[in-house]
Specification:
Four copies of one chain form a homotetramer. Chain A is an alpha+beta fold. Chain A contains 14 helices and twelve strands. Chains in contact: A-B, A-C, B-D, C-D.
Chain lengths: 310, 310, 310, 310
C-alpha cells in the first residue's frame, strides 16, 4: 500500500501514452469539445488519505454517476417502496434501450439505466418543485464532499434537455404505463440537472466515501444510508453500473463502479478505498475506455478486487 | 465467527419451518420426486474447518453448478481463446432463452446460461471421446473434494437427454452459426453427464475451496487455475450465476454464487469461506428458494458480503 | 347483388343482437363514453349507389383510418421518397410498439402503425404551419366525400395530446434517430388532429371511393393518386391495416381495410365497393370486434373477397 | 390478354439481360451449384391454356413452396383444429427466426415460416410412418399436376437433413413447448422430403390451379379443398408468403404468392391465372430476386393485381 502513489503515477503516465483514447460522446454538444487527452485519477483511503494523479482537480460532467446519488437520496425517502417501480437486474441492453420497458410494462430493469434513473428522479421530485429537488441532490453531494462550491453546469443541462429525445421517449413511455407521476418536463428537468453536476476526480472520490464506509459520511459523522442499503447500492453498481458492459467490468476490475458518458467512473473497494477516474474517450458501450483500463491496473496492482481470495 | 455453528443451526431450523418451499423442478423426471422438505448447508472456512447443518451429507444433482467446473477445466486448456466463443455479460433473460443467441449470432452471453455451457462442453470435448471428456470433469471434481466416490447419476443423465428439447434447440442453434465444432449429440452427452454429477453439500463446499483460495486446491496443494482467472470466475458467478435473478442475488446475498435446478447453490466468500446449500424447491427464476434465503441470512449474520465496508 | 340491402339489414340486426360487443377504447377519455351498442354500415358501389344500415349517419372519430388519407396526401407531395423513411412490411407487433423502432433505427415498419403515421405527419408538415397541414388533410377528405361539413373534433384532439404518452415516446424516438424533421409537438399536433376527424359511415365509405376506383375521385373527376400508387395503398391496407391482426383480417374478410380505435373500419373491394363499418367495441388487438365480424359476413355474402376464384 | 405470350417473352428476355441476378442459396449444398442464369416462367389460365417462357420445363427444388401443399393436406385432415397450433399473422421476422417462438410459447406465427411448416408436417405425420406421410404429399402434388413423374430429389433431402441445424433447433423448440407430437427426426424427415420435391415451372403452375379455381382440381374434377379454405390459403400467401418481404411483394406484385429458396415462386391471380416463376438467385430476404421483378412486370402488364380497381 505504501507503493500506491507510484502505482497511480505509473498508471497516469501509461494512460497518457495510449494511442487509442476512445471516442468522446458527441450527442451532448458541450461534452463533445472536451479534449480526449485529459486523464485524472483520485483515491481516498479508509483512513482519509487522499492520493491523486493527472487532471484530478479538473471538474467534469459526472453524468450517469449522478444516478448513484439520486438513488441514495430516493432510498432515504421512499425506502424499499422504491423497488416496486424499478428493478434490480442487469438489463442486458444499452443504457438507453426502450425494448425492455415495453416487455416489462414500464418498470425499468434497474436504477442505473436511463429509464430507471428517470423514475428515481420522479420519486425525488415527489411534491417538490424541480428547483427544490435539484437543490436536495446538490446538497447531498456537497455534504459528501465537504465543499460548497460544487455546482451544476447549466450550459450542459440545457443542451441535454434540448437534444435528449431518447430520454423524452423513455420518460413518456414509463408515463404511459403509469410509472411516472409528475410531468415529463419536470422530471427530465431534475434528471438532466443532476447529470450536469460538475466535479473533479478528487471531489468525486470524496463523495464516494460513504459507499466504502457502510453509509457513513466521514465529513459529517452522520449515516447517509444504513450499512445494509449501502451494501446493496454497491451490489447494484457491480451488476448494473456499466450498462451492457457491467459483466466485463466486474470480470476485469472486480469492484463496484458507476460510469458516466462524461468519461468519469466512481469505484468502491468496500472498507478500503473510494476511487474516481476521468478520461473522456468512451468505448463502444459508452464507458470511459482509458478509465476502465486504469481501474483494472489499479485494482490488480493494489489487490483490491472483491473477488480476490488467494 | 465463533458463533458460526449456532447461526447455521438457526438457519436450518428456520428454513425447515418455512411454509413456502418453492416448486421442485418437474421437467427432469428423476428430479421431480425429490422431497421439497430437504435442506442442507455446509461451510468450509479458509483454515479448513468444515461446519454443516441439516441434510448436508445427502447427495443431490448439482445440475448447472457443474458449469463452474466445466468452465474451470476449459479455461485450463483453451485459455482466453474461450472468450471468443462465449461472452461474459449477464443475459437479462431466462437460463434457457434462445432470443439472445439469434441477435448475437450464436455467441452465448456467458458460460453460465445453458447455451454458454453447451459451447464450453464442446471445447472440453475437443478431439476426445465423450466418455473421456466426462471423465476429466469427474476427475477434477473428485480431486477438488478429495473423494473418489463422487459419481454421475446415469439415471438423471439419461432423463435429461430424453427430455432436453430446449438444450437440443440451443445446441443446434449455436451449431447453425458455426459455434459448435462437434456433433450435437456428443456435446449434449457431455453436458448432461456433467449436470448429473451427484454431490452432498459438504462435498460441494469442499469442491469450491479453490474459488475461495485464489485457485489453490488445498487437497493437492496444486493451483487448479491462476489467481487471476479464479477472480474472474468469481466475478462471473456474481454477475451471471443466477440467470435473470443474478442482480437480486448480488443485492440480497452479496457473494458470488452459482445455482442449479436441483436446488443446490455454491457460494464463495473470497479468502473466507466456501459454502454450499441445498433445498430442492425453486423460485420463479429456477433458483433454490430457501437456499437463497438461507444464504442471505448466513452472509448477513457472518458479515461476509463482499460489498460490506462499514 | 340485388340482395345487398337485405344482407346489410340482416348483418345490422345480427350485430345488434350480439352479446359480446368488445371493449370501447378507454385511454382516450372522450372515446370512452361512446355507447358500445352503436353499429353502422355503409356501402358505396362502383356505379355510385349508396346503401346503408344502422347508425350509418352518426359521426365517429375515425382515428387511425386517417392514416390512409395522410399517406395519400404525403405520397402526392413526397412521392416514392417517402419510402426511405417508412417501411412497408407488417410489423408483427402492436400498433404502438416501440421495440421494432429500436431494432430498425427509427424507421417505422409501415405507415399504418402509429410511429409510421407520425413520420408521415412530419412529411405533410414540411415547411407549413401545423394549422395549414391539418387544413390540407381536411380539404382532401372533404373533397373525397363532397361535403364541406366534415370537421375535426377539437375535444378529442386535445384529449389525445394530453394523454398520448406513447405517441410522445414514439415521436421522440424517431426524432432521436433523425427521422423526424420538425418539432415533436408540432408533428403530434398534426397527427392528433387528423386522428380526430369525425365522419359517419356513409361519409367514410364515400371518402374511400378513390381506393376502389384506381385513384379517381368521382366527386371531382380528378385523380387523387395514380392507379399504380392506389393499388399499393390497397396492398398496404391488406398486409398492415389491422396491426398485429392484419393476417387474421385478410384470412377472414379477404379485403384491404384500415381500422381505427374509434371502432371504424374502411374497407375496399377494388373495382366493386367502398365499405365503412362502425362498432365502438374493440377486440384484443384494438380493432372493432363487431365491425370485423360484420365485414366477414358482408364479404362472404357478396362474394367480394379478392382471394375468391371459384 | 391476347398479348400475354409476347409479354412473357419480353420478360424472359429482359430478365436474362439483368446483371444483378441475386445470390444462389449456399447453405444447402446441392442447391449451391445451380446456375444463376436460369430463368423460367409458366402461366396457366382459368380456361386451361398454358403459356411458358425460358427454362419452364426444367425441374428445380420447390423448397418452401411445398408449405402450400402440406398446409392444404393438413387442413383436409385436421381442419380448423390446425389453427390451435399455428397462427396466421405475418411474423415480421426472417424465415428461420426463433425469437417469435420463445415469446409466443412454441406456437409459430404462420404455416409459411419454417417453424410453422414443421408443426404442419407433424400433423401430416400423425400416426403414419414418415414414408407414408411423404407419399401422401407427393400423391397430392402429382394429382394436382396430372403427372406421375414428379419426384423427390433424395440428394437434396439428405443434404438438408445433414445441414439443417436451424430447423433442428426450431423443431426441438416447438417440441419443448409440447407443440410437436412426433419425434423430431421423423418430423424433419417429412419436412425435408417435401421441400425436396422437384418440379418445373410448368408443373408448378399446373399444381397451383386449385388455388385459382376455388379449390377445384380441374385434372380430376374433384375439390381438393373447400372454396372457403382455398380463399384463406390465398390470403395467407398474400400476408405471409414471402417471410419478412411479404409486405413488399404485396405492394409490388399485388398477388398471393409463396416463394422457396430454390428460387421458385408460385403465384395466384384468383379466378384468372396460376403462375410459376423460377430464377435461382435470391434477394436479402431469401426470395427469388428476378422472380419477384418478373412477377411485378407480369402482374402490371396483365392487370392482374387483386388491388386493381381503376
Amino acid at each position: 500500500m505504501t507503493a500506491l502513489q507510484p502505482l497511480i503515477d505509473a498508471i497516469v503516465s501509461d494512460m497518457r501514452a495510449m494511442e487509442d483514447k476512445g471516442k468522446v460522446a458527441n450527442y451532448i454538444p458541450p461534452l463533445a469539445n472536451i479534449s480526449p487527452g485529459k486523464f485524472g485519477l483520485a483515491v481516498v483511503l479508509a483512513d482519509g488519505q487522499v492520493l491523486t494523479g493527472g487532471d484530478a482537480e479538473e471538474p467534469f460532467s459526472i453524468q450517469s454517476i449522478s444516478k448513484v446519488f439520486t438513488l441514495t437520496l430516493a432510498l432515504g425517502t421512499a425506502g424499499d417502496q422504491l423497488w416496486r417501480r424499478v428493478g434490480r437486474e442487469p438489463s442486458g441492453s444499452a443504457f438507453n434501450s426502450i425494448v425492455q420497458l415495453e416487455n416489462e410494462k414500464g418498470v425499468p430493469r434497474n436504477p442505473f439505466i436511463n429509464a430507471g434513473a428517470i423514475v428515481v428522479s420522479d420519486m425525488i421530485l415527489a411534491r417538490h418543485e424541480p428547483r427544490e429537488a435539484i437543490g436536495q441532490v446538490l446538497r447531498l453531494v456537497r455534504d459528501l464532499v465537504g465543499e460548497d462550491s460544487i455546482a451544476i453546469d447549466e450550459h450542459v443541462a440545457r443542451a441535454e434537455l434540448e437534444t435528449g429525445f431518447r430520454n423524452e421517449a423513455l420518460a413518456n413511455y414509463t408515463k404511459a404505463f403509469g410509472n411516472l407521476h409528475n410531468d415529463v418536463d419536470r422530471v427530465l428537468g431534475v434528471y438532466s440537472h443532476c447529470c450536469s453536476i460538475a466535479m473533479s476526480c478528487r471531489q468525486l472520490a470524496l463523495a464516494g466515501r460513504y459507499l466504502m464506509l457502510g453509509g457513513l459520511n466521514p465529513e459529517t459523522g452522520r449515516q447517509v444510508l444504513s450499512a445494509h442499503r449501502t451494501r446493496r447500492i454497491n451490489a447494484l453498481m457491480m451488476t448494473c453500473g456499466h450498462y451492457d458492459n457491467s459483466g466485463e467490468f466486474a470480470f476485469r476490475v472486480g469492484l463496484p463502479g458507476k460510469s458516466g458518458v462524461g468519461g468519469g467512473i466512481l469505484v468502491v473497494a468496500p472498507g478500503v478505498a473510494s476511487i474516481a477516474v476521468w478520461a473522456p474517450g468512451l468505448n463502444a458501450q459508452g464507458n470511459s475506455l482509458l478509465g476502465s483500463i486504469a481501474l483494472e491496473r489499479l485494482a490488480a496492482g493494489a489487490g483490491w478486487s472483491v473477488f480476490e481470495g488467494g
